[in-house]
Write a structure and sequence with these properties.
The protein is of the alpha+beta class. The chain is 30% helix and 28% strand. The strands form two sheets. It has a four-stranded antiparallel beta sheet with strand order 1-2-3-4, with helices on one face.
């Protein structure tokens, strides 16, 4: 129904042309294949009918993750025995790490380092909606930033934005942010090289330490 409305077509099946009916039937079968195979709901993005040098292809994404600016797009193609797809179910841990990396990249480009250690996970990918972890996933995160992009004076302002990001995605955990003049080549000494730092705990009281 959403697809028909988006294309400005009648929403009554018998009012469609034979070609339009065939397209809707194929989209429904391919989406249903994904939903049943992975026990998740997938959202339609695009459909390409079979042509001489083009396989019939459906593009969709899991509703639980969203499209992720294209990262989580899935393609389904026809085979002699039915369908095949390129969906590899991301773990909850992977999704949390991906979302955090996207947030940090938006702020600092590649001028940051991020290390994560999952602590607990009681939510499944199929249970998530709009990238929300429902306060059932937690991790210990360490974020290292270059002083030239985030000085100690600006650290609290960024930490507030980061805390809001965690709240929006309903992420638990302990998160330590450190500001360095430069990144050491030996990652094993990072913990000893920090300058000012801040800790943010979500799911309870917030502690700010300098």
């Amino acid at each position: 129904m959403n697809l028909l409305e988006a294309e400005g077509l009648p929403t009554e099946y018998d009012q469609l042309t034979v070609k339009q009916q065939n397209t809707i039937d194929r989209v429904w079968k391919m989406i249903s294949y994904l939903n049943k195979k992975y026990d998740e709901e997938f959202v339609y993005v695009d459909y390409i009918p079979p042509e001489l040098n083009q396989s019939e292809t459906l593009t969709a994404y899991p509703r639980s993750t969203g499209s992720g600016n294209g990262k989580y797009l899935v393609t389904v193609k026809t085979t002699r025995g039915g369908f095949k797809d390129n969906y590899f179910d991301f773990s909850v841990e992977d999704l949390a790490e991906d979302l955090t990396n996207e947030f940090l990249t938006e702020h600092f480009g590649d001028s940051y380092k991020y290390f994560v250690s999952p602590l607990a996970c009681d939510v499944k990918m199929s249970e998530m909606e709009d990238g929300k972890f429902q306060w059932k996933y937690g991790a210990s995160n360490r974020i290292f930033l270059l002083e030239e992009l985030c000085s100690v004076d600006n650290l609290e302002e960024f930490a507030v934005e980061y805390a809001q990001f965690l709240y929006d995605h309903e992420l638990l955990g302990r998160h330590r942010i450190e500001v360095l003049r430069e990144f050491p080549e030996d990652e094993a000494i990072w913990a000893r090289k920090g300058g000012g730092y801040m800790e943010v705990r979500t799911g309870g009281a917030q502690d700010f330490i300098f």
